[in-house]
Amino acid sequence: MSDLNRTQEELKQKTEKWLDELDEELEELSEDVEQSENVFAYRDDTVHFLEQEDFIRSWEAVIYAWGILETLQRLGKTD
């Protein structure tokens, strides 16, 4: 899939943007935090799916990672 249509390109760019921001947040997150392994796993899935040019699954994975991370933050588990 070398010729990306506009939707695919936009999805790829947004996923990469949110992945970069997630990586910044993960620098501060200890792997000892309960459920953090899920954040890291979905982050790794995001990269895998991007490499496979499966942009829908990569977008889903980065959003799941963010959802778990934000839930942990709201519960005060990341402090």
Average pLDDT: 93
Would you list the SSEs in sequence order as H and E?
HHH
Helix content: over 70%
Rg, rounded, reads 13 Å
The CATH topology, please?
Substrate Binding Domain Of Dnak, Chain:A, Domain 2
Describe this structure in a few short sentences.
This protein has 79 residues and is mainly alpha-helical. Helices cover 72% and strands 0% of the residues.
What does this structure look like?
This protein has a single domain, classed as Substrate Binding Domain Of Dnak, Chain:A, Domain 2. It is built from three helices and no strands. It is elongated, with a radius of gyration of 13 Å. It starts with 5 loop residues before the first helix and ends in a 5-residue tail after the last helix.
List keywords for this structure.
79 residues; mainly alpha; Substrate Binding Domain Of Dnak, Chain:A, Domain 2; 3 helices; elongated
Write the layout of secondary structure elements.
Blueprint: H1 6-26, H2 36-51, H3 55-74
